[in-house]
Amino acid sequence: MLNSKYKIAYVLSFVILVLATLASTWGLFSESIYRDNDLIIAAWKGNDLVTLFVVIPLMIISLRGSSKGSNRSHLIWMGTLLYMLYNYMFYLYGAAFNKLFLVYVALFTLSIYALIIALLKTDASNISSLFSKKTPIKWISGFMLFFGTLLGILWIIMSLSFVFTNKIPQAITQTDHPTGVVFATDLSILIPALIISAIFLLKRKDWGYVFSSMVLIKATTYGMALIAMSVIAKFRTGEGDPMIPLWAFLSIGCFISCFVLLKNMKKII
Question: 81 with 268: CB under 8 angstroms?
């Protein structure tokens, strides 16, 4: 039976699925939609590939499970919503204006409200009670803290280098974009989410289980997108990302952490 208390969020998620399928399919298979430089076009296409063939199917499956009352599916579904929010923020503010601009606006906005509604309706206390006391929260939260701290240090050092050298970091100049979109998004959204979720989980707060599951789902899938971006960029431009081993390591770590965390959750429907 449909879990009616999430009805609005489910409807918004359905619209998100339709629009994300449109945006990722058009972006992946069209050579004219993107107006950025070759390196960034390759990045968008890698992102579209993972969105279309990994995240959208995962959202469909988890949305179906959540609608039937599965708490594990509910957490995965909210994690895919977080991915959509984070992902299309980059398209909205980082992509050169193109024919899909209004679709990016809709995806970003719908993802925010779908996630807010889902979180407001979520019984964190009930969900946290489903996790085994043997859940290895210390090493899971430790990995998340490591991830957030490492990424934060990297982006802060690169940003501060401009203060002292007056030289814009290569990570920004190679995008032909005047602002540090990646730095700004990660430092304001991803890194705080990783650190706060890890602290909540370490202290066994109810919301720690919810937030950590969501963030790990998002980090795993977006890590896959980063790897796909790098591979496609290498083939299209001959320029690879020297940080791909780090992205692979972090993505695998997030996947293992997420798998272990959700595996320690009782399956109650």
Answer: no
